[in-house]
Amino acid sequence: MAELSTIARPYAQAAFDVAKAESALSAWNDFLSAAATAASQDEIRQLAKNPSVTSFQLIDIFEKVVAPSTASMRNFLGAVVSANRVDAFPAIAHAFSAHKHAFEGSADAYIVSAFPLEASQAKELVSALEKKLSKKLNPTLSVDASLIGGFCVTVGDEVLDMSVRAKLARMQSALTA
């Protein structure tokens, strides 16, 4: 069986093309996120695998749960469900988000700090990161006391670990080498 990301790629591209044509990237992103959340529910997954549930019934359930706001969203939902690809919705949403970020020149940034950041500190850090990466960032902040001090930032596949824990690990590695 093909990887879900391989299956999701053409669906995400089609959704992106339609969303771009409709100038509704945010609405489509919200719609696909809702569909991914719904598809991740145990009850929905069981219904999707149940041979006695028709695709029309499953589409109806999805429309009630996700509430697509346009005809193109309803058609997309119907196409994915009819093709028995409900399990691909999370991968479709992820791939769509990647297309959206590339188009907008933005990225999601996951910032983990050892201590809670004040609003001004977070704004300053995000501003410096945007300048360094030449991208508009959508930050998500969290706290992890095990970092001891500093912060760790993940943007896509790039990781900037400026934590005390990482510095101690590098020093230990250098001393034992």
From TrEMBL:
Domain of life where this protein originates: Bacteria
Pfam family, one: OSCP
UniProt topology in membrane: Peripheral membrane protein
GO cellular component: plasma membrane; proton-transporting ATP synthase complex
Protein location: Cell membrane; Membrane
Record keyword Nucleotide-binding present: no
A GO molecular function held by the record: proton-transporting ATP synthase activity, rotational mechanism
InterPro entries according to UniProt: ATP_synth_OSCP/delta_N_sf (IPR026015), ATPase_OSCP/dsu (IPR000711)
Keywords assigned by UniProt, alphabetized: ATP synthesis, Cell membrane, CF(1), Hydrogen ion transport, Ion transport, Membrane, Transport
Family: Belongs to the ATPase delta chain family.
Main function: F(1)F(0) ATP synthase produces ATP from ADP in the presence of a proton or sodium gradient. F-type ATPases consist of two structural domains, F(1) containing the extramembraneous catalytic core and F(0) containing the membrane proton channel, linked together by a central stalk and a peripheral stalk. During catalysis, ATP synthesis in the catalytic domain of F(1) is coupled via a rotary mechanism of the central stalk subunits to proton translocation.
Annotated protein name in UniProt: ATP synthase subunit delta
Name of the encoding gene: atpH
